[in-house]
Specification:
heterodimer; A: alpha/beta; Rossmann fold; six-stranded parallel β-sheet; six-stranded mixed β-sheet; 11 helices; 42% helix; 19% strand; B: 310 residues; mainly alpha; ABC transporter involved in vitamin B12 uptake, BtuC; 72% helix; globular
Chain lengths: 356, 310
């Protein structure tokens, strides 16, 4: 009698234990921290599309939007880690230090930081997309479509990510049109429609007939539409905001990665990783090409897209010279990831200096 | 880069377009301050105008209703300020600051459903004349009605204050509410009206941003322009015509900065962002060296509550 009782007690304990483990595994909660509003139709919007994919895969998610890249971020992260979230995605470069700081305090919570390079603790992973592959495609289009040979580029902050994009864009444009000039204006914001459109207007007034952007709002494509010049959508398909101006958009597709990582947390297989995916892995997607582009250009773009995806073509293939004319990448070589990650110099053909 | 006269015309046009919300909000605030009320809630009233204009436009589809709606929203929120400061005699500075914080918060809340919706195109006047005269025509033609109104407003405001009887009453109330009251003027009524008028103009300034300048709703889209407008009133020494000049200088700073960048000239952005405030401080220092001048231009009862036993 006594034995049976103990046995059944133990077995029920084991049963309960497995039940809770199963419940915990199923109940993984993911949190997302956004820099902008989910409705920005750009950067944050695309991350939220990814979050919805995680929900669709059967996991609980929460998000906090409009979190400044300051001490506020730390407070939000601590709050999320404290309230039972198992994995937290921090989706802006400026969250790099707060993420690592809070990760140290919560070793059992997994942190995933987008576009950063610091992984100071075993529970911090980083991930980014090779947007520069998409920008090589935009550069090819811009170099072909420009009539004034002046291409405007509204940039946000002088960080490697943005400079890499400018370089990749310019190199691709030069390849199809050696006479082009890329004029850069730094808006010093990721998201301020007023400033972004003033910057775009200045570029158009100075003769640019194609505007590329590395800021997040739809203001620039709208200005381009009004002025009758071409533009490219950023982060999401911005065609509906400027049907005539937008030639194509470079879309960020985070969903598959998010689902994979949350599943890994659920299965207990999550480990620290540095992910850098491009067109080939589907993290960077090129939207439909506008009919204003001639068919031979469309074919060329499609081919380049396929070659970038397969790795046959690399956006940074030598010889590449910097602004002073010094060799950056030798002929026949391609830039390695280390060089790309820390890229802080313009290539030849970009006008102006990088602001300090 | 060939700098031709047409190009300069384009730059001036951009500067004027960016000066519009500053002129509207400053002229409204100037009337409020001339009646002796200091309303620091300009930023809050502007952002409320911005979201209301955009929301009315999206819901009703009518631009006219949207503009009127934005002005009424400005009036509505300034009524709160008027009631608090004039009827309950609260401190102007604290109430104004609260109004700004309130406006930013509530606009973000209402705005949730309006983020990411493309705005409608606002009709422009004299579009066909835009390419007739090389330098002048982009400056003169092809703008929205709000644009023309904004550039006429300082002159109307000046005329109103200096040449009309009601303008004189407003100034009298601002300079000496006691004497005005003794003359049988209803100080509270005058101040209420001036506050509501200021609210309407700030609402219009906000609507210009969300409906014409960048036709979309974005949280916090006024981006500190309300504070610049406040600085502008002080900069102008409460003179509407000088608001026009100040708004062109303040609005021009960002535009010129982008043009300099595109031309390859490097300028520290942070310095330029701070420049409007630095200029205002310098102007204040300069005018306050002459105590007579500051006494003549500043409404004497500015920011002071007026209380009358009945």
């Amino acid at each position: 009698m006594h034995k049976i009782f103990i046995r059944s007690f133990v077995s029920s304990l084991v049963f309960l234990f497995t039940l809770t483990v199963a419940a915990v595994a199923k109940d993984v909660k993911a949190a997302f921290v956004y820099i902008g509003p989910t409705g920005d139709h750009g950067w944050t919007y695309q991350h939220d599309v990814g979050r919805k994919a995680v929900e669709a895969a059967g996991f609980k998610t929460t998000y906090v939007e409009g979190v400044p890249e300051s001490a506020d971020a730390e407070r939000v992260l601590r709050q999320l880690a404290n309230s039972g979230h198992d994995v937290i995605f921090t989706t802006s470069f400026g969250y790099m230090n707060p993420t690592n700081k809070v990760a140290k305090e919560f070793p059992n919570v997994k942190f995933e930081h987008a576009t950063g390079y610091k992984r100071e603790h075993p529970n911090v992973s980083t991930y980014a997309a090779r947007f520069y592959e998409g920008r090589a495609i935009l550069g090819t289009i811009a170099g072909t479509m420009t009539k004034s040979n002046v291409i405007g580029y509204v940039a946000s902050f002088p960080i490697p990510e943005v400079i890499r994009g400018i370089n990749s864009f310019t190199l691709a444009a030069q390849k199809v049109n050696p006479n082009i000039k890329t004029k850069i204006v730094w808006a010093f914001t990721w998201y301020d429609p007023g400033k972004e459109s003033e910057a775009a207007k200045a570029l158009i007034d100075q003769g640019a007939d194609i505007i590329a952007q590395h800021t997040d709002s739809t203001a620039i494509v709208q200005i381009a539409e009004k002025a009758g010049v071409y533009a490219f959508g950023q982060a999401s398909d911005m065609d509906k905001f400027a049907p005539k101006a937008v030639l194509t958009s470079v879309e960020n597709n985070w969903g598959p990665y998010y689902v994979e990582r949350v599943k890994a947390v659920a299965n207990g297989t999550w480990s620290q990783k540095d992910t850098w995916h491009g067109i080939g892995d589907g993290m960077v997607v090129i939207s439909d090409l506008d009919s204003a582009m001639p068919s031979d250009l469309q074919a060329k773009v499609k081919k380049l897209q396929a070659d970038l995806a397969s790795g046959k073509v690399h956006a940074f293939t030598g010889p590449i010279y910097d602004q002073k004319g010094d060799l950056m990448v030798a002929a026949g070589k391609t830039a390695d990831d280390g060089m790309l990650a820390g890229m802080m110099t313009y290539v030849k053909g970009v006008e102006g200096d990088i602001p300090k | 880069m060939i700098i031709d006269i047409h190009f300069i015309g384009l730059i001036i046009t951009s500067i004027m377009a960016s000066a519009v919300p500053l002129i509207l909000a400053s002229c409204g605030e100037l009337i409020t301050e001339r009646s002796g009320v200091l309303n620091l809630g300009v930023e809050g009233m502007m952002i409320i105008g911005a979201i209301s204009g955009f929301a009315f436009m999206t819901v009703t589809g009518s631009l006219f209703i949207a503009v009127i709606g934005a002005m009424l929203a400005g009036v509505l929120i300034s009524t709160i300020f008027a009631f608090l400061t004039q009827t309950l005699i609260t401190n102007h500075v604290a109430t104004g600051l609260a109004l700004t914080i309130f406006g930013i918060g509530i606009s973000a809340m209402i705005g949730k459903n309006f983020v990411g919706i493309p705005g409608k195109e606002f009709p422009v006047l004299f579009e066909s004349l835009k390419d007739t005269i090389p330098f002048l025509s982009p400056i003169l033609f092809g703008h929205s009605i709000v644009f023309y109104f904004a550039f006429a407003l300082p002159f109307f405001t000046n005329y109103f204050l200096k040449k009309t009887k009601i303008g004189l009453i407003v100034r009298a109330v601002g300079d000496s509410p006691e004497s005005a009251s003794n003359q049988g003027i209803n100080v509270k009524l005058v101040r209420y009206s001036c506050i509501l008028y200021g609210g309407a103009m700030c609402g219009l300034a906000g609507a210009y941003l969300s409906m014409i300048y960048t036709p979309q709703w974005i949280e916090n889209m006024t981006g500190g322009r309300g504070w610049i407008a406040l600085a502008l009133v002080v900069f102008s020494t409460w003179n509407p015509i000088k608001i026009l000049i100040g708004a062109m200088i303040f609005g021009g700073l960002t535009i010129i900065q982008f043009h300099m960048q595109a031309m390859g000239v490097r300028v520290p952005v942070q310095f330029l962002t701070a420049l409007p405030y630095i200029v205002t401080i310098i102007v204040l220092v300069v005018i306050s060296r002459d105590s007579r001048k500051i006494r003549l231009s500043t409404p004497s009862s500015l920011g002071k509550s007026f209380y009358k036993d009945n």
